[in-house]
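Contributing new complexes? Match this layout with iron/sulfur cluster.
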Amino acid sequence: MSDQTVRERFWELPLADLTSKEWELLCDGCARCCLKKLQDEDAARLVYTRVVCRYLDQQKCSCTAYRRRNELVPDCLVLDMSVLQASVDWIPDTCAYKLRYQNQPLPAWHPLLSGSRDHMQAQGIAVTGRVISEDYVHDDGLEEHVIRWVRA
Ligand code: SF4
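Output block (do not edit by hand):
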């Protein structure tokens, strides 16, 4: 089996069995993982803000610097099995990788099931139209942008 193999209903297979291509296709493209997070000291957990990475194309929910993202943003999350295991506690609860890691099915709005991004857009899963670039927010002002619509 080649790394580029894509099997029927591959998203129901264990994550560890996916080919590279299947792993890549599992991403719903919501860009919630591109949001800035803050440590909530009272609750001892991370909270999400609506401030998003400057390299995100907010309309397409895609990275404009994908090949150079680690160089430009050293803490950018490049998910593989080991990163997922280490980060699962703070990855958004709608994330396809987190859901499958926890042996849960993909939601009906996921583009692999619904056939398009329309449902996830309608349900506000994608960040388009709900975020502001980090270029316009000082680090000290992040707290003003904490949101509740993304949770880990
Ligand atoms: S949160 Fe998960 S599903 Fe959404 S863009 Fe990030 S990696 Fe992909």
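Reviewers usually confirm one structural detail per submission. For this one: The first strand starts at residue 35 and ends at 40.
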